[in-house]
Amino acid sequence: MFTLPQKESRKPTTCPGSVSTRGLHSIYGDGLEREAARKPDQKLLYGVGDPTAMFSSDSPHLSSRGSIIKWFWDSAEEGYRTYHMDEYDEDRNPGGIINLGTSENKLCFDLLSRRRPRSCVDVGDSAGPHCEGILREEVASFLSFYCKSPAPLKPENVVVLNGCASLFSALATVLCEVGEAFLIPAPYYGAITQHVYLYGNVRLVCVYLDSEVTGLETHPFQLTVDKLEMALQGAISEGVKVKGLILINPQNPLGDIYSPGELREYLEFAKRHALHVMVDEVYMLSVFEESVGYRSVLSLEGLPDPQKTHVMWATSKDFGMSGLRFGTLYTENQDVATAVASLCRYHGLSGFVQYQMAQLLRDRDWINQVYLPENHARLKAAHTYVSEELRALGVPFLSHGAGFFIWVDLRKFLPEATFEEERLLWRRFLENKVLLSFGKAFECKEPGWFRLVFSDKAHRLRLGMQRIRQVLEGKSQVAEDPPSCQTQEPRGPHR
Amino acid sequence: MFTLPQKESRKPTTCPGSVSTRGLHSIYGDGLEREAARKPDQKLLYGVGDPTAMFSSDSPHLSSRGSIIKWFWDSAEEGYRTYHMDEYDEDRNPGGIINLGTSENKLCFDLLSRRRPRSCVDVGDSAGPHCEGILREEVASFLSFYCKSPAPLKPENVVVLNGCASLFSALATVLCEVGEAFLIPAPYYGAITQHVYLYGNVRLVCVYLDSEVTGLETHPFQLTVDKLEMALQGAISEGVKVKGLILINPQNPLGDIYSPGELREYLEFAKRHALHVMVDEVYMLSVFEESVGYRSVLSLEGLPDPQKTHVMWATSKDFGMSGLRFGTLYTENQDVATAVASLCRYHGLSGFVQYQMAQLLRDRDWINQVYLPENHARLKAAHTYVSEELRALGVPFLSHGAGFFIWVDLRKFLPEATFEEERLLWRRFLENKVLLSFGKAFECKEPGWFRLVFSDKAHRLRLGMQRIRQVLEGKSQVAEDPPSCQTQEPRGPHR
């Protein structure tokens, strides 16, 4: 038994003390001491402080919690940063630092190595900077090439997490206070709502688009700066603080592509209002019609506000690897990059996923000569088939040669223009064994739009389209009450 | 160009409207409609509602945000649940559901398969239930065996995320409202502070332990129910709402092991106060002294409150795979399991990590006959070496035959008993090229304790101990002001 002569009064004290609503607790101890040294006039109780007061000025780009997240990271990393700059190595750096601080079992790597898939780290598997460094270089090089950036993109501006869902969650949290909001043109990929809300408590302000065409040079569901301005002013008038704008390009579910001119207008709008812009380019390499002239925002010369422009990409769509969990953020804003990266404990990806991804991304020959041409040809063929089927059915739709889906107008098949009827039609499809997504899931304002995914094998598409036809023609087994308008002509040409 | 005759007034409305501080926004649309149908007396503006009011009664175990998280999941999954119960398969289920709803490119799996590591899913890589189901069975079987559960553990009680950091983050969020707290005996693994706070805004109330020994049957840093009670009452008196208790067993950094009797006392305490208990057993298989008689909480017959007992394990420590990102939660509470699992979009692990882990966990022969005996023998040898070195140095320490670290008492090497001196000593170690962790990082109340990790190769340990000795004996190159007490005798026997 280990006994100690020293006697100390024992006080099972609570750490937090009486804290403000955003207050932290005593683990700030060490940091508080340093902070106190820096700001001697600031009153600090033991282990109790108001981090918002301490950190709000850390970065003009981060929310108070973003600053706290970054600060936690920075302050905890002192020893490890020093270590990683001067790691001990028996041969190469015998005078380097021996790490007896990280609780990691280095004794059985030999036994484990034959059981573990290859990883880019030789010793251990800790989510260290080694692997990530290599991967960030590969991502920067990959994005430079495929986004056609005017100058090479920089590895230090790259953050890698386990998918775009996590990137949205992290960005919302480090950019916004609780209850603040992002603008988003609707219809939009509905899961983003949860991504920014569930952890971040950030809301979305919809910029509602509709199918009405108002002029010669316009198209259905067109996003304009006027609509952005109106939505922003509407939010402000309702007391909602808007911190950013989310753009999806190619758009999901519309399949829209923003022209460089449009992109620049939206970015200028954001700059005028000091908004961050998060550009989700997750379908960037799934543009199968060359003629649509897709341009990544990273291809633009002289971004209006590069410190507030954050670009996301992932392998989920372009490489059919949604289960792989791999998403990248590109931002020139180092505060944002650090704050988002420091959440990697919660959104980290396995060392060997990092390794595999680095291998894949650098295989430019295979991607350019085998994968992309074949992938685009197959997407185009599937798209052509489904388009023709829809035309034969007399169903209007929107499609622009990008993405995996067609935005289908089934409004005439609804007895009434309600979301309840939309859901009933959706359920009839499901009962007839074909699953689609209804427009309400994308926050579409007009009931009756559906997203139809065509990126599937021919025999499944054929069967799926047959089953859709059965429902629309009232011939499915389950359709008790076939919609009355089923024989109407389509209301416009297809695109 | 696609034109539509139907004209509709265009209103770029903001979704959120005037919401409560915890209010959600219009993406609740569909859900709100259903909720409204269920509760016709509840006043609802378009797209605006108070989800706390709607969900608070969903589960007595979940916080309002936990209920929201679970509800989002449940409601979004309707179509996919139906689909997964009746998936189309050309041969086995040609009458099954064709999925044209999930935006996934199934056209190039043949091209990608040769480039992708093996995964347990044949087609696609979506984070679906297939892989996870197999893995959960393996985890349940693995934990049943190694935790020596009285009855087989059930796969449906298993949740897998990318590590314990994520599990803490998710549990904090689904169990607590913003600002609520968990009790934790201190010193403790300091990163937990961030895990529960950064996303969850949950605080820790420390149950401070100290080195004083108060009686024959006691030991230093002993956790008692009295101390738990005092800390809880202290927190309550300060207006802090405590929702749970975190136990780490084997403890980090103390290396302590709770006896079955102690465990049961702590669990009974928690039950009396309706507290959830999160038991972190991440060093469960790293108990290298058989004689200490480690028992997992899952080995206990008749847990006092199984619905509030949540057990965590990971491969990071026991299989030296911290970079692999693999953590498991075992809980009989299905609300908690679902809510935590539904955050998998942010904490998901790659499909092929799931595959690899299932392979590893089922290889009971290798684990039992090769890995664990050798791992324990090596840990023991390394521990013996470092213990002897510390004794030779006259340094008291605590160590109980579990974990990778020794809790070292360097108080006598501090000129003054302050955390500033502790940090200065830590920096002298670092400047002499050896990295340790200081006690303040574990929220230890007594300055001068350090955690020394011994699970490293012999030559690095030797060098590390030499460098520690140099600093303590004032012989390092950098020690400008060697502590005056360096020649003192140790204050007690070692353990």
UniProtKB/TrEMBL annotation, chains A, B:
One Gene Ontology MF term: transaminase activity
GO biological process terms held by the UniProt record: amino acid metabolic process
Aminotransferase class I/classII large domain mapped to chain residues: 135-454
InterPro entries in the record: Aminotransferase_I/II_large, Ethylene_sulfur-biosynth, PyrdxlP-dep_Trfase, PyrdxlP-dep_Trfase_major, PyrdxlP-dep_Trfase_small
SUPFAM superfamilies in UniProt: PLP-dependent transferases
Superkingdom of origin: Eukaryota
Key words of the record: Pyridoxal phosphate
Region of interest called Disordered, as start-end residue ranges on this chain: 1-22, 475-495
Alphabetical list of PANTHER family matching this protein: 1-AMINOCYCLOPROPANE-1-CARBOXYLATE SYNTHASE-LIKE PROTEIN 1, BIFUNCTIONAL ASPARTATE AMINOTRANSFERASE AND GLUTAMATE/ASPARTATE-PREPHENATE AMINOTRANSFERASE-RELATED
Protein name per Swiss-Prot or TrEMBL: 1-aminocyclopropane-1-carboxylate synthase-like protein 1
Species whose genome carries this gene: Camelus dromedarius (Dromedary)
